[in-house]
Amino acid sequence: MNEAEEKFGQVYFTILGAVALAFGAAELIASAGGGFTWGILDSSGATDPLFLPWRAIILLSVGFFYLSSVKDFAEVHQLAKAVMASIMIWIVAGMAIWTRIASSIPGEETWFNSLEGFLASYAPPYCPEMFLLPFSLVIVYYIMKEKEGEK
Amino acid sequence: MGHPNVGKSVFFNRLTGAKVFESNYPGTTVDFMKGWMRLGGEDVELIDVPGTFSLEPKDKAEEVAVKMLTENKDSVVVCVLDASKVERGLYLALEIIERGYPVVVALNMWDVAEDKNIRIDVEKLERILGVPVVPTTAISGEGFKELVSKLKEARPAKIEEIIERAGAGKEGGGESAAVSG
Amino acid sequence: MQVKKGVVKVPLSVDERWDLIEKITKQTVEFGAYKHTLKDAIAELTVKPLTGIPVAIAVLYGFWSFFCDFAGTLFTDGFMVKIFDEHWLPWLQSVFPGGLGDPLYALMVDAGHLENGVLVPSDNCFEAFGVLTSGLFVPFGVVLWAVLAFYLVFAFLEDIGYLPRLAVLVDTVLHKIGLHGYAIVPTFLSLGCNVPGVMATRVLETRKQRFLMITLLGIFIPCGAQIGIMQDLVPELMGWIFLTLAIGYLGFGYILNKIVPGESPEIIMDVPPYRMPALRNIARKLWIRTSRFLLVAVPFVLLGCLIVGLMYLTGAMDWLASVLGPLLMVWFGVPKEAVAPLIAGFLRKDLAVGVLGGLMERGVMTHFQVFTSVVLLSIYFPCLATFALMLKEENWKEFLGSLASLVVVVFVYGGLIHLVGLMLGVA
User: Fold this and answer.
1) What is C191-241 written as a DSSP string?
2) Positions of chain B with pLDDT under 50
3) Cβ of C69 and A102 within 8 Å?
């Protein structure tokens, strides 16, 4: 990656890391009371009370990973931390999406869900990880750059 | 035979069409497995054994491997080596050669070795060992045809001759005397 | 060139062999310059504790979420419960000859239960407890999907190469209980089914390690079938159940390691490179493992239903319950009704939790009693199939040792849970 790209990456992932940290902290604090709901941001709704702190810890780690990667961002071991953080977001957000898919197909009383019911399953609010998901995808660009460099 | 996690089970499945577990970690196979393959119009029995580092077994799975070897005195042994860690694999291969088994060496994980920038002179290795050596990538099936065709060429090799040839390749020669003690 | 023939001793000594190898490789192998790639850097991150532990936490989160939604939400609650409770059970109740109160009907379809002295029919397949209702619902309605989901993720983690890294990561912790980090593989496998888990202990080096591992697996690791049913019945308790079992696993492992003589040497383990998993391989493993599992499980569940049903019918269950009831009540704080699931548990754990579910639906047990019973079920006798394999893999002395540990653990740990419950005021 060139210097401009490195600079951008540093700024970008500092912000993303800070946001992840904030979300994680909020989730951890709120987990005592069963999560928080704030507009379209929602972290409640897990059946198991231990699910929330679990997710909060992951989110906090994601934040730390991003923040610790920005120094000397172009170096492969540093970049790897940002990649790993993104993968962790993909795991958690991917599972949140999977939960919605799994519950959208069967209906309440009928075999299959109605179209409205199916679509309603995908409406907000979303959990913090899902908000981070699109922003974490920026890392793909850097992975491709790095792969080019390896050749 | 070969070390743990070099791809023996992948070979076995490819060659026999059988269904043995393949996983990307050491110790997938803990028991032996028999299967059949066609070789030049005949059915040949093939045995998949657990991985082992040497012929002095250290755990129960390795015991199984060594037992299978000693029980099948007249069989051809396919030695599967991790091409990116040739030295360790050769140790086991030499042990088997010393015991007088006809051997074919498969340098598996050739792709990984290439990734790691390791280059192996296959012809020379073949000359030194005196047994067929085939580079393979079991996952994608590269090198399998050659391996099967070389099975018939498997032969026992004399360890003295290997030492001789290994020494001979060196400049100045006379090295082999050092091993004779 | 002069070479002395016939002076080489066969077999060579270890040093001679290595000398020879060095000579051969010097001539044939060339190591090119090697730069760390992104893949290597990531591989490194996943084994270093500081970064590896958070990654492991995330991976396990993914594993568990996928498992719950695939098995519970989508298949079991989404379709299977509807099929079995709304169609299969009412249909059988209407066409099966005999009707409520008839012995054959009770065995095959629905034993019913007493409500204010009146025998009423069951409205779900956990309670009905007939061979054709619960006997089919447990394996095909719940367990099949749980096992499928488990093995799917497991095969993926296996083939991508994550498992051995997890092993390196937990090596330090497991060493404290006399096990090598590699023990994580049999442990994980056991979460699917204890049978292949016990088989996988063969890679451990000493008899002591194998004994420790088999004993701990048999006692503390619930299988996928059991987890599937528990997740369906008491999802809100799962975290606590796993925590309790994990504490037991580590705690008793530590004690056993101190008591059992023998050595627990290091094993040097290879960490394979990360690889893109081949879909074909995953699909094949999934198919083999699931079908093997069904082959073992289904006959046992059916048999278990039959035996428990017969024991109820003949009054043997009531007799046992009244005999063992006081002991259970005083020691573990569970009611005498828990005898039935404990007996079913010897045949199949999943079936046993199913019986518990039936009791719970009727409100016979409190939340904490259900929790205690579920944990007790996990730690007490392994299912018959595992039991048979333990007999085969261990010698007599070890087998008796495993059994003794099991009995001690059930009483001590079960009693401890009761005690903690009493102190917290929830029992």
Assistant:
1) HH-HHHHHHHGGGSSSHHHHHHHHHHHHHH---HHHHHHHHHH-GGGHHHH
2) 169-181
3) yes
